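[Discussion] Sanity-checking designs against the backbone

I'm trying to build intuition for which residues belong where. Below is a structure token string of 246 positions. I'd appreciate it if someone posts a full sequence so I can compare it with mine line by line.
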């Protein structure tokens, strides 16, 4: 099963790179997580000259190391506030291309880089393809919070309908996970999410919340590697190639 899933991730990543990270693209946002590793793998299989004219903007310590170790040109969103294409994974994607992200704890930087992009592309395996958010991803919506406010935010999340918001704990250290930005993460399960925009707005208004792992009306296209080796796509109704050559 593991090799099947990894193969599906690789298929989706390769196809997205082939179709969107073309030589005409100048600035590329690189997401985080296990699927993005295959996107980077495929980028580095190309002729060196294809990548030489590109700048790659990371979304985490992980993707920064992938860029550096691959010998690619590293940039930042401070230097490049307008990005041509950002490619990233997701924990779940619904029928309207809304996504839950943040299972890896990087959704603040991921959202900044995704919003800076003219085109945001999601790559994932078949397990992440849903009708509604919360259908398959049961860990909840990741919410990054400032450390001193987490108990207050947990109380407010219960008021919003989350029965058991949980401070995410580390596995290789005592205590909670600390993000690249020095914050905590709360995982809040709301069941099936029929109105992700409404939920996003309510959580964002809570004092102490830094960012929410709901990516609403952002992705232009999503690629899903399937069990049979094929790749399926979901496109936003607003999708168009408005970036020259991509």
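Best answer:
Here's mine. Compare freely.
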């Amino acid at each position: 099963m593991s090799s099947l899933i990894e193969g599906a991730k690789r298929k989706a990543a390769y196809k997205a790179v082939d179709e969107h990270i073309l030589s005409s693209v100048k600035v590329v946002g690189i997401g985080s997580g296990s699927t993005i590793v295959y996107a980077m793998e495929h980028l580095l299989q190309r002729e060196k000259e294809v990548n030489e004219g590109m700048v790659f903007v990371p979304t985490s310590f992980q993707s920064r190391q992938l860029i550096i170790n691959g010998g690619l040109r590293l940039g930042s969103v401070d230097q490049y506030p307008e990005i041509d294409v950002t490619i990233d994974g997701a924990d779940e994607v619904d029928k309207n291309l809304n996504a839950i992200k943040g299972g890896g704890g990087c959704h603040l930087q991921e959202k900044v880089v995704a919003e800076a992009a003219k085109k945001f592309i999601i790559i994932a395996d078949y397990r992440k393809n849903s009708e509604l958010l919360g259908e398959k991803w049961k860990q909840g919506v990741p919410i990054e919070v400032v450390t001193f406010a987490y108990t207050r935010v947990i109380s407010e999340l219960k008021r919003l309908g989350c029965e058991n918001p949980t401070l995410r704990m580390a596995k290789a250290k005592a205590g909670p996970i600390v993000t690249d930005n020095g914050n905590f993460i709360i995982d809040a399960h709301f069941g099936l999410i029929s109105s992700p925009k409404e939920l996003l707005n309510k959580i964002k208004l809570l004092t102490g919340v830094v960012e929410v792992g709901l990516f609403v009306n952002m992705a232009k296209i999503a690629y899903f590697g399937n069990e049979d080796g094929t790749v399926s796509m979901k496109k936003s109704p607003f999708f168009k190639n408005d970036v020259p050559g991509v």
